[in-house]
Amino acid sequence: MLNLFATRSIDLPRELAEQLQAEAKRHRTSVPELLAGWLEDCSDGRDAAKRSAALASGKAKAIPAAEVYAKISI
């Protein structure tokens, strides 16, 4: 069976731990969920930067939404 969850412990300066707790409370989530979301956002940002660079360099091309919609009959 695949284990989807892992438990890790890290030591943080008290001030940083308190900031994380405050952010989690502000977003009505847990610290692990807050950090998981942040990591996902970082990954999305890296992917977007790569795609943007590919567009800027001409290695990729943008397709207008209208063209895509027409192709799939929307």
Structural summary, described in words:
The chain is mainly α. It has helices spanning 14-26, 31-57, 65-71. The chain is elongated, with a radius of gyration of 20 Å. The termini are far apart. The mean pLDDT is 92.
Give a quick rundown of the structure.
This protein is mainly alpha-helical. It has helices spanning 14-26, 31-57, 65-71. It has three helices and no strands.
Could you list some keywords that capture this structure?
74 residues, mainly alpha, 3 helices, 0% strand, elongated
Describe the sheet with the most strands: none
Total strands: 0
Order of helices and strands: HHH
- Low-pLDDT stretches are none
Shape: elongated
Mean pLDDT: 92
The number of helical runs is: 3
Task: Explain the layout of strands and helices.
Blueprint: H1 14-26, H2 31-57, H3 65-71
